[in-house]
Amino acid sequence: MTSTNIVTILKQVGAVITDSHFVYTSGKHGSVYINKDTLYPHTRLASRVGSMIAQKFKTRTIDVVAGPALGGIILSQWTAFHLSHLKRKNILGVYTEKDDQGNQIFRRGYDQLIHGKKVLIVEDLTTTGGSVAQVVASVKQAGGQVTGVCVMVNRDPQNVTSRVVGAPFTALGAIKADAFDATDCPLCRNHIPINTQVGHGRDFLARKSLQSGK
Q1: Residue 210 lies in a domain
Q2: Residue 115 in contact with residue 66, Cβ under 8 Å?
Q3: Is 129 flagged in the annotation as binding?
Q4: What is the 3-state secondary structure (H, E, C) of the chain?
Q5: How far apart (Å, rounded) are the C-alpha atoms in residues 72 and 63?
Q6: Does 130 show up as a binding residue in the annotation?
Q7: What is the domain extent for residue 39?
Q8: 118 is in an annotated binding site
Q9: Mean pLDDT over all residues of the chain?
Q10: Which distant-in-sequence residues (6+ apart) come within 8 Å of 11 by Cβ?
């Protein structure tokens, strides 16, 4: 499968939205949003994406697939499912959750399933690489070995690399989208309204309102 295939799948379900003002998970702002939540209800397509990732790693030794909540949960399950069939062995699918400080950590005893195992980390999108880097750190802290990291779409292929995430890194495809700090956002300067229907715009505006005392 090529980069065009994953982009085609996302466009097929209306996941690629342009010409608006979005707030990303990283807190950065931009005009292109990939609403991956529109993919997951389509189980055959979500399964296909998991299969695409599994095919990239079918020759690697993998015991567990891990992903950060929320999107990484579904991808980890489908990827583990297809890897189990390809490799004719039981490969587990687990996930991390955010703690009170916003760090991705293993709960529910999943750290015990990671210890001593070779782990593939999957995620749907990456803008800065921060979430997957935290999962890499949590896998290592739990005593696991990171075989690789694969995301569905890398939104900043020039800057989000293996060095940034701390492990061998790849993506099914890339959709280049500029991302700006909230304090240096041209969309904000031009008074373009923040989209509150998708992304984290609603939370951003709520925090901004509290900070301004309104």
Answers
A1: no
A2: no
A3: yes
A4: CCHHHHHHHHHHCCCEEEEEEEECCCCCEEEEEECHHHCCCCHHHHHHHHHHHHHHCCCCCCCEEEEECCHHHHHHHHHHHHHHHHHCCCCEEEEEEECCCCCEECCCCHHHHHCCCEEEEEEEEECCCHHHHHHHHHHHHCCCEEEEEEEEEECCCCCCCHHHHCCCEEEEEECCCCCECHHHCHHHHCCCCCCCCCCCHHHHHHHHHHHHCC
A5: 17
A6: yes
A7: 3-200
A8: no
A9: 93
A10: none
Percentage of the chain beyond pLDDT 90 is 84
Please, is 214 exposed, middle or buried when counting C-beta atoms within 10 Å of its C-beta (0-12, 13-18, 19+)?
exposed
> What is the average pLDDT across 142-161?
95
């579904």: which residue's tokens?
A: 74
8 marked as binding residue: no
pLDDT tens digit sequence for 59-108: 999 999 999 998 899 999 999 999 999 999 999 999 999 999 889 999 99
The verdict on whether residue 124 carries a ligand-binding annotation is yes
Angle between helices 3-12 and 43-56 (to 10 degrees): 170
121 is a domain residue: yes
Q: Does residue 71 have a known ligand-binding role? A: no
Whether the predicted pLDDT of 178 surpasses 90: no
Name the domain count of the chain.
1
The answer to whether the annotation marks 125 as part of a ligand binding site is yes
- What CATH number corresponds to the domain at position 26? 3.40.50.2020
